[in-house]
């Protein structure tokens, strides 16, 4: 699955896998926040062309302190994975699961961002199969997530008779998404993260100025401290024409169908990043921050 490139088709598969999982989760469908590549089209609805897509579904769970987890019960998570016929990657139960949609596969990643066990899988009370991977950075996406009504595709309704026509799910807000994506971009340095970050900053309503305001207004858990350096360092990569990230963003914009010239798209990326950084710096220096 990792070798398959992102396309609009893979994005639709990922959304279908998410909806199927959410229906099986039932009342627990709002116990997590959807982060990752399923967000950009919601956050930038006025983009000239839809986001390229994604090949996986990233779900972020809020666990809190270790001693707060004793009252939680994730038995439902095991049940949803089993009923959805998700198989653990590598044959070992854990935080990465593969779902089959026809002859295609979609990966489901279960994530958290907590104080203890950095970089390690976290066991979940009541769950025998599922764990969550503790990553540094996505926690801001838990701040004021947006509840969205997602249509249930006919293929899923056929598989799950009696399914409602829509399902309610929590998605990352604009500020939370940018903060989480910036952290991912810095930690793993993948071209898809550069593209996702640039896409949302360039095309969200209000563009770079609104993106900067949204990030400045996003709360960050105490264990993460200020994310100002993370945000600035990540977006700096998108305004430095000497770095390869701008060309990678241009390549993916064109794969998504944008027929603008390389030079025009490169200019658009750089100008947007510069405007974001100028606005964000001004906001943070004047005290408009929740970080």
TrEMBL record:
Taxonomy, superkingdom: Bacteria
Protein name per Swiss-Prot or TrEMBL: PAC2 family protein
Organism: Herbiconiux sp. A18JL235
């Amino acid at each position: 699955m990792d070798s398959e490139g992102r396309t609009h088709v893979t994005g639709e598969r990922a959304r279908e896998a998410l909806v199927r999982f959410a229906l099986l989760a039932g009342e627990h469908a709002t116990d997590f926040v959807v982060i990752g590549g399923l967000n950009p089209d919601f956050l930038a609805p006025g983009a000239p062309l839809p986001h390229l897509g994604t090949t996986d579904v990233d779900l972020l769970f809020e666990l809190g302190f270790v001693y707060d987890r004793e009252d939680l019960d994730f038995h439902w998570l095991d049940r949803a994975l089993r009923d959805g016929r998700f198989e653990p990657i590598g044959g070992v139960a854990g935080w990465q699961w593969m779902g089959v949609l026809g002859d295609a596969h979609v990966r489901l990643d279960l994530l958290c961002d907590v104080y203890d066990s950095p970089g390690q899988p976290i066991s979940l009370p009541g769950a025998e199969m599922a764990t969550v991977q503790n990553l540094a950075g996505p926690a801001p996406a838990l701040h004021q997530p947006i509840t969205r009504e997602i249509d249930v595709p006919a293929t899923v309704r056929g598989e799950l008779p009696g399914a409602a026509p829509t399902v309610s799910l929590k998605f990352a807000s604009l500020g939370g998404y940018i903060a989480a994506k910036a952290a991912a971009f810095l930690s793993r340095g993948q071209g898809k993260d550069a593209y996702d970050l640039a896409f949302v900053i360039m095309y969200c309503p209000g563009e770079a100025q609104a993106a900067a305001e949204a990030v400045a207004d996003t709360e960050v858990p105490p264990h993460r401290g200020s994310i100002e350096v993370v945000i600035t360092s990540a977006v700096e990569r998108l305004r430095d024409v000497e770095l390869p990230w701008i060309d990678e963003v241009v390549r993916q914009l064109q794969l998504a169908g944008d027929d603008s010239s390389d030079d025009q798209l490169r200019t658009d990326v750089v100008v947007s990043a510069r405007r974001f950084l100028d606005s964000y710096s001004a906001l943070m220096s004047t005290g408009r921050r929740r970080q």
